[in-house]
Amino acid sequence: MLTIKNLHANIGDNKILQGLDLTLEAGKVHVIMGPNGAGKSTLSKAIVGHYDVEVTEGSIDYKGKDIVKLPAEERALEGIFMSFQNPTEIPGVNNAYFLRTALNAKLKHEGKEELNAAEFLRVMREKLSSLEMKTDMLSRSLNEGFSGGEKKRNEILQMLILKPDVIILDEIDSGLDIDALKAVAEGINSMQDGKRTFLVITHYRRLLDYLTPDYIHVLKNGKILKTAGVELVDKLEEEGYDWIKAE
Amino acid sequence: MMKLTDLQNKLQNEFQIAESKSELVEKFLDLGLPNKKSEAYRYANMDKLFDQEFETLEYNAKELAYSDKILIVNGEVISMPKGIRVYYANTDEQNINLEHYDPLYFLGHLLSKKSIIIEIDGDSEVDILHRITKASTLIHYRIVIKTQVNKHASIYEHFEFDNAHESLLLYGYDVDVQKDSTLTFVKNQHSDEDAPTIIASHDIKVEKQASLTLQSFDFGNAPALQLFNIVLEEHAHVDMGQLLYLWGNVKRGTISKIIHRGESSHSVQEAKNILEGSARGIFDAIIKVEHSAKYTKTQQNSKTILLGEATYMVAKPQLEIYIDELEASHGSTIGQLDIEQLFYLRSRGITEVEARKLLIVAFANKLIGTIRDKRQEELINQNFEKAFYAQNQKTNLL
Ligand SMILES: Nc1ncnc2c1ncn2[C@@H]1O[C@H](COP(=O)(O)OP(=O)(O)OP(=O)(O)O)[C@@H](O)[C@H]1O
Ligand SMILES: [Mg+2]
Predict the structure, then answer these.
(1) What is the pLDDT of residues B184-227, one digit of tens each?
(2) Ligand 1 probe mutation, A42, A55, A84, most atoms within 8 A of CB
(3) Residue A247, domain member (yes or no)
């Protein structure tokens, strides 16, 4: 579904990714683990086209073309979504208005009818309650003053309404309480339809216990150094990353 | 035809030989037409204007028709709503504020022998539409607003320009906000290639316990200046909000002086400036707290976002204080759109143009969002859209 080949990416003068290969398969849940600073967020930013990341070599093939040069909004409209590790606050931009603008952009792109305010609200009510979010989150400014957990839920809310094909979740579990973790995991599972692909970045198994991961990849030294089944998580939790060397 | 430098010379010569000397003429000659050395106009060089030849017009008071608003076409009042008195009266030198700092305030009064008087009875609202349809012409008028004690009035000011390029519109209000009354004044001005240069010079007195809300929304790429001299008496309150949204190669903005004269007077002045292209914005604003104005509160702030490479903002909030017992805060920031915020929006499929718009609206909305009248808010939003899309092409992704 999405194939990354020999990806080299820099942030400023730092070479972060150095020849990374990874194939995300349709209908599968891929997990990326790895030490702090290894480049996990850099990889997800490279996939969505973040301005911080400069791709110097390699390709990211999606829907039959290399998207490395595609503007971020076009990647999003084509179905690539990333929940941010640290979602930014945007004072003055109403959350509901933002969500509706994003949803209507997507619907328009798909040649579908845009939603008016009332129809939109109906859709939102249902999603909000599934995430146990208060409706007043909609009338506030986007992420402004949201708690860490509220920001993460708002990211999941966007995933639920935009219905993307490639879903990248960068430490979606950090800062979530136990109930929120469950609600978020249910949200993720509800999106599984055998076609969508998930790239879950995490440091802990807590979230993975609620999901059904197919592959565990270890990102280290700018590359995917190891790929295995879910059993790898236990070993990593016990032994850390030191033992992992290039295969 | 007339040139303002010639007029100044003529006044000078007449003044020297005059037997009884007019204080108004004296004030004007003292300050002189603005040049680079003028205090008030130090950031707004307008020299060329004063050497330009303008057509002039005869002003004849006519029978007024009734309409839903006060319509002033090329300086002549054409119509007015029922329930509001509008008439011409000779300008009484008594009512001219000789302490005003702006030479063009005095010039406006010198040129306009009669003022347009607008008497607003009771609690009411009125729209004023200034329509200018002449090119290369000097159009000047003064308007006196009379409100009543203990009442609330709202004035909504609009503009229409048709083929008015190379003209100079020199006008302004003399307002006395009566004791215990409130006045809300909202200006909505979009001026582009078709518009004249606009100099609006106002003199406002806010009496005891009176409250004035002044909101100006300035959009455009044609030169314009608004100048305010505002005096606050005891427990008087002024709340000013100014949005400036410029593009092209224009210099435009506000020069103001708020004078706290009475005890416990209160002023708030908030400017928001959005500059595109190679526009230059001006916010040159003095707050003066006199000896007599103990327990004054004042707050002054200017925020700017620069969107064009060659834009420039002169933001000079200034405090001139003669007492200790006061609360004062002021500041000024200049920045750009936040790239992380832009990216966040784009990463959700919102085009760059629409993402920019969301952020600019968020910036401007702190002012636009405070307009109480929904119809006026809508009209201002329309001008905002016009301004935005003058600079940013609507994009349609395939
Ligand atoms: N904007 C930036 N400027 C400079 N260096 C950066 C920037 N963003 C990331 N880096 C550096 O790039 C490297 C990779 O960062 P990245 O955020 O991808 O790590 P990560 O694997 O996601 O780590 P974590 O597990 O802590 O989230 C780090 O050394 C980091 O300091
Ligand atoms: Mg990270």
Answers:
(1) 999 999 999 899 999 999 999 999 999 999 999 999 999 999 99
(2) A42
(3) no
